[in-house]
Amino acid sequence: MPVLFGFKELATLPVERVTDKISRRVLAGKQCMMVWWTIKAGAHAAAHKHLHEQIVWMLKGKMDFRIGDERRSMAGGDVAVIPSGVEHEAFFTEDTEVVDMFSPPRDDFLAGGTPTYMQKP
Question: How many CB atoms lie within 10 A of CB 63?
Answer without folding.
Answer: 24
